[in-house]
Amino acid sequence: MTLSFNALTAVSAVDGRYGDKTADLREIFSEYGLIKYRYRVELRWLQTLANHPQIEELQPLSDEGAAFINALYEGFDLETAEAIKTIERTTNHDVKAVEYRLKEDLSANDELKGKIEFTHFACTSEDINNLSYALMLRDGRDLLLARYQRITDALAELSAREAQTAMLARTHGQPASPTTLGKEIANVHARLSRQLNQLKHQEMLGKINGAVGNFNAHHITYPDIDWPALAQTFVSETLQLTYNPMTTQIEPHDYIAELLDNVARINTILLDFARDIWGYISVNYFKQKVIAGEVGSSTMPHKVNPIDFENAEGNFGIANALAQHLAAKLPVSRFQRDLSDSTALRSLGTAFGHTLIALAALEKGIGKLETNHEVIAADLAANPEVLGEAVQTVMRRYDIPEPYEKLKALTRGQKITPEKLAEFIDTLDLPDEAKARLRTLKPGEYIGLAVSLSKNA
Question: Has 297 been annotated as catalytic?
Answer without folding.
Answer: yes
